[in-house]
Amino acid sequence: MVLEFELCPGRRIGGDQPCFIIAEIGQNHQGDLETAKRMIRMVKECGADCAKFQKSELEHKFNKRALERPYTSNHSWGKTYGEHKRHLEFSHDQYRELQRYAKETGIFFTASGMDEMAVEFLLELNVPFLKVGSGDTNNFPYLEKTAKKGRPMVISSGMQSMNTMKRVYEIVKAVNQQFCILQCTSAYPLMPEDVNLRVIKAYQSAFPDIPIGYSGHETGIAITIAAVAMGAKVVERHVTLDKTWKGSDHAASLEPSELAELVKSIRTIEKAMGSPIKQLLPCETACRDKLGKSVVAKVKIPAGSVLTLDMLAVKVADPHGFPPEEIFDLQGKKIKKDIEEDETITEDSIDNYSTKTKC
């Protein structure tokens, strides 16, 4: 079983490792290299683990007619879809520059390979892991070839069924043990009723030997925090410098203050998950000492009496005595000295009392 593995050098995911936070810059850089660098610096300052982009070799991702079709959206950067995508697509040299900048900034850098040739380029860059976007998750030839590269993989599952995801698991698992699957719904922005966080639990049950995560397109951070509380070991959120910028992804993206708050909240949740062992904690002793209740005499009890429940009550008492959960164990015990009404029942009040009787 490989429930935990190294996603990036020195950074493992799964098991009890901290949640790995991917800031998806995607193409929210507006096609401007300096803006992209600002975003890399921003996500580092906000505490994310990785700055991620999207890399396409357009002639391999789209056919000619798709690139030539008119694109009249308010979000368009050109008259055709091809012109639009070319405006947003960085060159190989620009990617190398961004990778160098990310290294200098001290944050992991990778991209979604949006086609097979893009994957080949990302391998040349030696990115630490390969992200498979939802649009390629059911592209089984692409998926198998990518898995065979031997690089760790993060696979989103938007637009897919559980049957498809089971096939994805089988295809990748056969050749690559280091991958995780993210619950994802491909809508921008995503409405809460379409998030389906329970799929995280379904994936954990269906694929118990890989980490499960969450890729969100909703507004705000509450749902992503809930995903971490449900066990997501990787989270991915789109980020932007300004939600009002041109581009369909900006509305579903987090601005810097939101990203910083998300990272902070995730780290708080991880601390709060704590231990599955329920016990009295040192931080609770003050409250117990002040408000914890004890067994007291409901009536005056003469020496030699045998205790019955109708002689006993439970109150906040001074001094402390037997805790309430032991009241039934006191039945039948003989009292060796007079106890006044409302007085605490203590160990030295019980004839032949032994701590063994409490076991």
UniProtKB/TrEMBL annotation:
**What Pfam families does UniProt report for this protein, alphabetically?**
NeuB, SAF
For this protein, the record's SUPFAM superfamilies field holds: AFP III-like domain, Aldolase
This enzyme catalyses: aldehydo-N-acetyl-D-mannosamine 6-phosphate + phosphoenolpyruvate + H2O = N-acetylneuraminate 9-phosphate + phosphate
Q: Can you give the residue ranges of the AFP-like domain?
A: 294-353
Question: What are the UniProt keywords, alphabetically?
Answer: Transferase
Question: Membrane-crossing residues?
Answer: none
Enzyme class comes to: transferase
Q: Which GO terms describe its molecular function?
A: N-acylneuraminate-9-phosphate synthase activity
Q: What PROSITE patterns does the record tag this protein with? A: AFP_LIKE
Name of the protein in question: N-acetylneuraminate-9-phosphate synthase
Protein EC: 2.5.1.57
Instruction: Give the GO terms filed under biological process for this record.
Output: carbohydrate biosynthetic process; carbohydrate derivative biosynthetic process; N-acetylneuraminate metabolic process
* CDD domains assigned to the protein according to its UniProt record, in alphabetical order: SAF_NeuB_like
Concerning PANTHER family, the annotation shows: N-ACETYLNEURAMINATE SYNTHASE, SIALIC ACID SYNTHASE
> Native species of this protein?
Microcaecilia unicolor
User: Does the entry feature the keyword Ribonucleoprotein, yes or no?
Assistant: no
- Tell me the classification of the organism that encodes this protein: Eukaryota, Metazoa, Chordata, Craniata, Vertebrata
